Every structure is written in C-alpha cells, then in structure tokens.
Amino acid sequence: MAGQMVKGGCLCGAVRFTATVSNHVGACHCSMCRKWTAGPMFAVECAGSLKVENETQLGVYRSSEWAERCFCKVCGTSLFYRLVGKDFAAISAEALDDVSKLELVGQIFVDEKPAYYDFANKTKMQTGAEVFAEFAAAQAKG
Ligand SMILES: [Zn+2]
Ligand SMILES: [Zn+2]
User: Is 0.90 topped by the overall pTM?
Assistant: First the structure.
C-alpha cells in the first residue's frame, strides 16, 4: 500500500506506535465507535504495518466476533480497531503525532449517525449494509 511511515501514541505517552498509512481519513458514525471514542471515529487504515512499541500498556477489548478495540491502559486513549486474525487495523487519526496532511474522504455507517451533528465535508457516504457488502465482495475476491 502506498503511504508513509508515521508515528503516534496515546495522551500520556505510555503507548507509542509506528505504521504506514495514507493521508485518507474515514469517519465511522456507528454506535460502537461513538461510544468508544466519544464521537465519530476518525481513522486511517493500515494493513500489516502497525507496530506497537510497548504492548504491555495496551488494553484490548474484544468488541465483536471479528474485531478488537485497543486503548492505553493508563490514560484510556482509544488507539485503534483491528480485525482478529487479519492484517488490518484502523488507527485513530487523532492518535497520530501529525494530522496536518490528513484529508477526510469517506463516512461509513451514515445510517447510524445521530441527528445532532453533520459534517460539511463532501465525502463518499456509505450505510452499514453497504460497508458489509463491500467487505464481503473484497473477501470473495481474496
Ligand atoms: Zn496513555
Ligand atoms: Zn464504527
């Protein structure tokens, strides 16, 4: 995947990581992300490039059959979502040290977005059903 190596970490600095990501940010409006991050989750995707420097400080919450949400055990910062048994993680954009080049390109689970906010950004918009269908199609292709 094209991208650049970036660094990031939590609020207190107990967890630091590196990853190779593009500057494309996706926002997820699903109820779980909103509960977990206290807002929509802004994330940059990375394949197998995520390397956590101090795993012992990393809390792991199995939020569904297929995914885990990882956070700092000390300060509670939401850090990334990863698929169990697959090389895929969605890293919180705000966990990156430098967010100056990021661009919001997509929004998912727009059908779960609460009515009290709306982004002015013009982005791709997908419902939860559309996200699952795209994921299933990608899996079928291998
Ligand atoms: Zn921390
Ligand atoms: Zn979500």
Answer: yes
